Amino acid sequence: MKLQDILTYIGDNIERDDTLAEHWAESVATFPAELPRFLDPESATEAREFASLPVEADRELREAALQIAASPELLHLAWHCQRLLWDHLEYEAEKVARWPLLDRRLGDLSGAFYLLIALEAVSRMRAVHERLGIPEKISRDSCCDYTEKLSMYREHHDGHFGILPSALAWLRHLVRGDLYCLGRHQYMVKPFGGHLKAYRHRQSRRLIALAMAGERFDCEGFAAQTDSPGSWTAGLIETTTEVVGTPISPFGQAVDRELRLPLSEWDLALSPGDMILEVHIPSGGSMTLDRCQDSMRQALEFFPRHFPDTHFVGFATHSWILNPQLEQIYRADSNMVKWQRELYLFPVPSSNQAGVFFVFGKHEIDVNTAPRNTSLRRAFVDHLANGGRLIESGMFMLLEDFASEEDQVYRKQWQD
Known about the structure:
The protein contains 19 helices and 16 strands.
């Protein structure tokens, strides 16, 4: 079976051959004589149930599996794709996102082709979790991405069950055993990627972040492109006695002034590359402050118990949910804003429509025709229609500060 023959069969552009060509000979050599596990109806149903997907998905999954099994071309393609995805974790995620849609051969079942491949991750994840002693409830909860990605697919494909190729690579975190859903949020241990250093005062325990040298900001203190009108550049000078730099407020904005911190009084508390618990925020609403904080407490118990050799200094992430302007764009009493107030926000490079995909299911919207059926959608559409932009922001919360009983600790420190 030649790859180009398969691409011709599915009616795809032959130029995509470079995306799928890697490891093709190996996939052909390992092609099984029996039906692969991920196409077996019972195995697919078991994985679907474990991932808490609706039983209604079984019909389309079974129909897709039958059509794939009856076509040598589709069967070889499915075998190859699942091997690239799960057996070759180094295969680039960007290439996975460019895999062909199969509408011409499978019609409404094209998304089910990739959902069957996606569900193969469940059995592999369970094997990893069993070796690590992960409780089954956490294993089940950690499959929450399936529900999110399936819901988004169904919303834009007339209710059919499936998943897009662009959503597949993220599920590799389950196979690697490094992503866990603990309460409201998901976590994995990663190096801190923020372009800042945070210093703590030895006596007062106040914390302040300084931007890395060369970072550029606009007139509001948000991250800017290098050629943006009115933008300015941060500086950071470190000597043996002091550090001089551009402060970042916990409200998520850099301040165009110079701040001197004597190292006889201030210690470095966070810098790029330090290990943190990276927070990921699944869709689903009900992101109350209590649920967010309870989830973070669960993470602080879970990782030392199951990964005792792993150390981290706090939590961090970046997201459209952390947009510092949400208090004005949306509602000051929203759950997202309440959580923001407990964190140290910082600017990150961003598009001007951050969050549009997660709120509307598409990367760009027409403000004249975009749906306005929720309060958040209405707020976004109105803001964009008035010439506003939607940005994302980063956040961190260090362990010492999370353990504090005080609320809004970083904002109070900044005001002091």
